[in-house]
Structure formats: structure tokens, C-alpha cells
Specification:
The complex is a heterodimer of chains A (336) and B (327). Chain A has 336 residues and is an all-alpha fold. Chain A is built from 15 helices and 4 strands. In chain A, strands 1-4 form a two-stranded antiparallel sheet. Chain A has a two-stranded antiparallel sheet with strand order 2-3. In chain B, strands 2-1-3-4-5-13 form a 6-stranded parallel β-sheet, with helices on both faces. Chain B has a 6-stranded mixed β-sheet with strand order 7-6-8-9-10-14, sandwiched between helices. Classes of the chains: A mainly alpha (336), B alpha/beta (327).
Chain lengths: 336, 327
């Protein structure tokens, strides 16, 4: 029995267990797809996946931090759209396709400011008014969507300078530029959450906000800050989206909202906040991308891909439950 | 974990059977959204024509009409190394970079309903704006023998395509039927069935010599038809325009709706495959060439557009068949 408890606690506490499980899943998927299609393990396909994943990845990281703090940010996609519009608008003011690199930098900074403000407002309402994060971010999502549709009349802004293509479609030493960007940001996000006082505060707030406050941490400020950072990340996603599509429109990428939630939970983030790490979430993202590209490569139906993703999530939840673990451990005991 | 991996491999293997062997020419066609009747019909056309020509063609229908999903699907097709990519764009501008990437990789790119796209080998249309408008005007002219008035609906005053149809129809009427006069200007109500109906009731009351409605916009003919039915003017006032055959089936049979035109998505699917196969084999599209599914073409080389008039008439004889297909 002691062995069992030890094993259990090991499994529960160890992010190693989390990663190992996901790594096995990934390995199996890669194996199956490379048997099913000779083109799966080619540079072209890996490159294509490397270009596709960062956008979803950035949005997922933007979703991850609020979930860790016990909330949710449903406004990520529309925040990204509005920030993209800010960038596009700035570039248009400086002559559209002829705009210099300075216009892009100014637009990027403005976009990040807009994203941070959108996030900060949400964080402040969640922290100081005490409204539920789902309601607050839903309201923000509706507001940003309406605002964007009003400003653009539902149309798009397109025609950006050529150098923006490098950000969206370029390669550096054979590695897609978006992937490099994503790698850097993910690493920064990991350090921020695991190695800084603010990150500690986020986990504590997510576990128990009252206790955190009694312990002398400023939980409210933490919440405002985490939503602000989430908004900032949305802005970067919005800039990347503008570079990849060479156009900005409210509604680009809206299909990704729920997939970011899926990626977070698949990566072992506690839906009630307080537990979870960045690394398994990135593994989960890679798994989702492998599934999506792999199914496309073998020519499976798109709707089937969605169904498979859903099944994955259910399967993961079943396998993660304590009951299953105890059963597995019970039957794998050698002394009966 | 074992059980889990078992599940994973079983799933992946099941879908693995969907993969077919490599044929000579392979193509992938990315449409706006999967699972709706319009694109299901297009997929039928693609499969049928691919079987006839012995090429491999698949249709990818994203789960929502999000341009981001179309970009991903096209990137996967480039990675897959297909010879031809076809696309029915949700948002032309968002696809330009990825289509450029495809063409740089030596892939033939064909689009449908994307006249503004630049990074394509050819864009084809089964209905020209002028031809579509004129066909409806002609239908009205055939039905109404004596002089009088007619009204024109568009979906909204800001829908470019509907207004182009209306322009062409009104110009044709002015030239060929000076005895038929337009009532007011056009009315931007045809996306809404109730607005179409109430506007039609007002117009019928105000103009005793009203003879017909030209309604461009999917709900316009339905709404105007209901008004005509309510006022018991069936046969006196004719209603025509493009509409969904399933929705207007009963009204066509009762004679309230005269009919209209549409283009056939299955035919568009066939043209994708035919044209893709031609271009992949190094053939070129010349003026006067007879391409199956398109007829004799007169391509606009400058804008890379092939615009034809392959209209499909919706009337008492064809509506049932079209509605059966779920269109």
C-alpha cells in the first residue's frame, strides 16, 4: 500500500509523468502517420507544421496563464484581431506596402499597448469587481468583435510591406521564423511562471485566492498583471497573423479559440487553476498539430479530425482520473 | 498507458485506410466550408471527374469558414506535394501569401469565385455578372407580354455582386423592353424574407400595373412570392431570381415563383479537376478552346480569369432534382 501511495504521489506531482505520457502518445502518432504516408517525415511536411503551430501556440500560451490563475480568457482571438487591426492601420497611415520598417515597429508597439490595455481591463474587472472571468472575457470578446466589425465594416485591411512576409513565411537556417519566435516566447513564459515571484503568485492565486491574500501576497495585482500579459501575447499573435495572411480582418482565426482550451487541458493544466506547466502544453500542441497535418496528409475528412481531437481529450481525462490510476496500479501489483 | 496507445493507434489506423495509392496527377481542392449541401455537391463533381480522368483528387472542407483554416489546409497540401491546388476562397487577401508559396513550389493553382486573386494560374466562373443579370431579365421579358412596371431587389445596397447583376438586368430591360418601367430604384431587402414580403405588399398596393419582381438575393424571391400569393396575384405578377431550390420548391410548383438561375457546384467541381489536369500536363488555355464543363472559353489573360455563362435554370422541371441534392 505504501508503494501504491508513493507511486500515486509520484504520478500526481511529477511533471515527468505528464511529459512521458504525452511523449509516448506523440511517438505513436508519428510512427502511425509515417507508416500511413511516406510524406509525413519529410522536410516539407515538418516545415509546414512548423509554420502552422506557432499561431495556435501563442494563443494557447495566452489562454494558459489565466487558466492557471483560476480563470479563463475567451477574448484571445478578438484581442489578437484588434491588435492586428492596430498594426494594419498604422502601416496604412505610412503608405501601406511602401511603409518602412519604422512604421512596422511603431505599429507593433501600438498593437502591444492595445492588447495590454484590453487584458488589463479584463484583469481589473475580474480582480476588483469580482465578476466571473468567463463572463468578463465573454463580454470583452463581444465588445472587441463588435468594435472591430464597426471599424472595418466587416471587411479586411490588406497589402503590407514585403518584409513582413519574412516574419510569417521566412526561414532562418532552415527553421521557420514563426517557430523561432514561438520558441523564445514559450521559454520566456516558462521562466516567468516557474522562476519569478509573479509566477509563484499566479499559481497560489489559482489554488486559493483567499489563502493567498491572507498570506500577504497581492492576489488582485497578480490577476491584473496576468491578464495584461495574456493580452500582450494576443497582440504578438495578432502581429504574426497579419504577417502570415498579409491581411487583417475580424474573425481570422476564430476557430482556434476552443482548440487553445483543448491544448491546455491536454497538456495537463488543472481546469480549476493552480496546477500545470508550460512544457506539457507545448507537447500537447505538437500532438494536435501532428494529428491535424497527418490527417490532412492521408486525406481524411476534416470533420473527422475534429472528432478525433475531441476523443483525445475525453480519453486523456479518463486516463488521468485517480480511479483509473488506482485500478491500473492495483492490477499491475505483482504480489497478488 | 498501454490501453491508451492502443486506442490511438487503432484510431489512426482506421483513418489510415482512407489514404489512397498515388496516381499520376494529384490535386487538392480547398473549399470555404465542409459539410454543407453546396460543397457536398461540389465534392461529388470532383470525385466523378477524377474517376473519369484517372487522377487523384480530394476536397478539403474546413470545419468553419475561417480563412486561417484554409491557409493551414493549403500549407498541408504543399507539404503533401500535390500537383494542383484548387481553392474557393473565404477571403482572397488572406490566401495570397500561401498561394504564392504554392506557385513558387511549382504547383498549379486554380480558383473559383475568386476573381480578385493574383497568385493563381487561372480563376474560373460559371456565371458572369452581366450574363446572370441578363438571363433573369430575359426570363421576365418572356413572361410579361404587355407593358407595365417591375421592381428590382438586391440583397443589400452594398453587396457588389448583386448590384452588378441588377445593373445588367436593368440595362437589358431598358434596351429590349422600353414598355416595362422600373419602380423606384432597387430595394435592398432580399437577404430578409420578411422585409422582402412587406416591401412587395407595399409595391403591389401602390402600383396596380406591377407585372414582375426581379429579386437578386436568396430570400428575395421567396418573400416577394409570399406577397403575391397573399394578394392572389399568381399569374398576374411574376417573381424571378436566384434562390435555394429546396426552399422554393413548393412555390415553383404552385406557380407563385416563375423561376431563376443558379450555377451548378458539381459542375464547378468537375471543372476544377478538368482544368487542373490540363494545366498539370502542360496544356495551356487558349481563346476559343472547348473545355468540358466550361464550353468554349474566352479567357482574360491579363486578369487570369475564365468567365463563362453556364447557368442552370430553376423551373418546374428541374427544381425537384436540384432540391433532392439538398441545394
Amino acid at each position: 500500500m505504501t508503494a501504491l501511495t508513493k507511486r500515486l504521489s509520484q504520478l500526481k506531482s511529477g511533471a515527468g509523468g505528464e511529459n512521458a505520457g504525452l511523449l509516448v502518445m506523440l511517438a505513436v502518432l508519428v510512427l502511425v502517420f509515417s507508416i500511413a504516408s511516406p510524406r509525413f517525415l519529410t522536410g516539407a511536411n515538418l516545415g509546414s507544421m512548423g509554420f502552422q503551430m506557432p499561431l495556435l501556440g501563442l494563443l494557447t500560451l495566452a489562454m494558459l496563464a489565466p487558466i492557471l490563475s483560476g480563470g479563463l480568457n475567451l477574448a484571445i482571438v478578438y484581442t489578437a484581431n484588434i491588435c492586428g487591426l492596430t498594426l494594419a492601420w498604422t502601416i496604412m497611415q505610412f503608405g501601406g506596402a511602401e511603409a518602412g520598417i519604422g512604421a512596422f515597429i511603431l505599429g507593433g508597439v501600438l498593437a502591444m499597448i492595445v492588447g495590454a490595455i484590453a487584458g488589463a481591463v479584463m484583469g481589473a474587472v475580474v480582480a476588483y469587481v469580482g465578476a466571473h472571468p468567463i463572463l468578463v472575457s465573454l463580454a470583452m470578446m463581444i465588445f472587441l468583435r463588435g468594435l472591430g466589425e464597426f471599424l472595418t465594416r466587416g471587411g479586411d485591411i490588406s497589402g503590407f510591406p514585403d518584409y513582413m512576409r519574412v516574419l510569417g513565411h521566412g526561414e532562418l537556417a532552415g527553421i521557420p521564423v514563426p517557430l523561432i519566435l514561438f520558441g523564445l516566447i514559450a521559454f520566456g513564459w516558462h521562466v516567468l511562471l516557474r522562476r519569478t515571484p509573479h509566477g509563484f503568485s499566479v499559481y497560489m492565486t489559482g489554488s486559493n485566492m483567499k489563502a493567498t491574500e491572507y498570506a500577504g501576497l497581492n492576489a488582485k495585482r497578480t490577476l491584473v498583471l496576468i491578464y495584461t500579459l495574456s493580452g500582450l501575447l494576443c497582440a504578438i499573435a495578432g502581429i504574426l497573423m497579419a504577417a502570415r495572411f498579409n491581411s487583417v480582418r475580424v474573425g481570422h482565426g476564430e476557430a482556434m479559440l476552443l482548440i487553445t482550451v483543448l491544448a491546455c487541458f491536454l497538456g495537463g493544466i488543472d481546469p480549476f487553476g493552480g496546477h500545470g506547466r508550460v512544457a506539457p502544453v507545448i507537447l500537447a500542441l505538437i500532438i494536435l498539430q501532428v494529428l491535424s497535418s497527418g490527417l490532412n496528409l492521408i486525406g481524411a475528412n476534416q470533420h473527422l479530425a475534429t472528432a478525433v481531437w475531441g476523443l483525445f481529450l475525453i480519453a486523456v481525462m479518463v486516463l488521468r482520473s485517480d480511479q483509473i490510476r488506482q485500478m491500473v496500479n492495483f492490477f499491475s501489483r505483482k504480489d497478488i | 498507458m498501454k490501453k491508451f496507445t492502443g486506442l490511438v493507434s487503432a484510431l489512426a489506423l482506421t483513418v489510415g485506410f482512407a489514404s489512397a495509392s498515388f496516381a499520376e496527377t494529384s490535386m487538392g481542392i480547398v473549399v470555404k466550408i465542409g459539410g454543407i449541401p453546396w460543397f457536398n455537391a461540389m465534392e461529388d463533381g470532383i470525385k466523378r471527374r477524377a474517376d473519369e480522368l484517372g487522377v487523384e483528387a480530394e476536397m478539403i472542407g474546413p470545419v468553419s469558414a475561417d480563412p486561417a483554416l484554409q491557409v493551414q489546409a493549403i500549407e498541408d497540401l504543399i507539404a503533401k506535394g500535390v500537383d494542383v491546388i484548387g481553392v474557393v476562397p473565404n477571403d482572397e487577401a488572406a490566401l495570397e501569401p500561401v498561394l504564392k508559396k504554392a506557385r513558387d513550389a511549382g504547383i498549379v493553382v486554380i480558383s473559383h469565385e475568386g476573381p480578385g486573386l493574383e497568385n493563381v494560374d487561372w480563376n474560373f466562373e460559371l456565371a458572369s455578372a452581366d450574363g446572370f443579370g441578363e438571363a433573369h431579365a430575359q426570363l421576365l421579358s418572356d413572361k410579361v407580354s404587355e407593358g407595365g412596371k417591375y421592381a428590382v431587389y438586391v440583397g443589400s445596397l452594398t453587396v457588389p455582386l448583386h448590384n452588378a447583376w441588377a445593373d445588367a438586368a436593368i440595362a437589358w430591360m431598358k434596351e429590349n423592353r422600353p414598355d416595362l418601367e422600373i419602380v423606384g430604384d432597387r430595394y435592398g431587402v432580399a437577404e430578409n424574407v420578411d422585409d422582402s414580403r412587406s416591401t412587395a405588399l407595399d409595391l403591389i398596393a401602390a402600383n396596380p400595373d406591377l407585372k414582375g419582381f426581379l429579386a437578386f438575393g436568396s430570400q428575395g424571391p421567396i418573400g416577394a412570392g409570399r406577397a403575391v400569393e397573399e394578394r392572389r396575384k399568381t399569374g398576374d405578377i411574376h417573381v424571378m431570381g436566384p434562390f435555394s431550390p429546396g426552399q422554393g420548391r413548393k412555390m415553383i410548383h404552385s406557380g407563385v415563383l416563375t423561376g431563376g438561375y443558379m450555377w451548378n457546384p458539381a459542375q464547378a467541381g468537375e471543372v476544377f479537376v478538368t482544368l487542373g489536369n490540363m494545366l498539370a500536363n502542360g496544356e495551356t488555355v487558349e481563346a476559343g478552346a472547348d473545355i468540358p464543363g466550361l464550353g468554349v472559353v474566352n479567357p482574360d489573360v491579363e486578369a487570369r480569369d475564365i468567365i463563362t455563362d453556364n447557368l442552370l435554370e430553376i423551373n418546374k422541371d428541374t427544381v425537384d432534382e436540384l432540391a433532392e441534392k439538398g441545394l
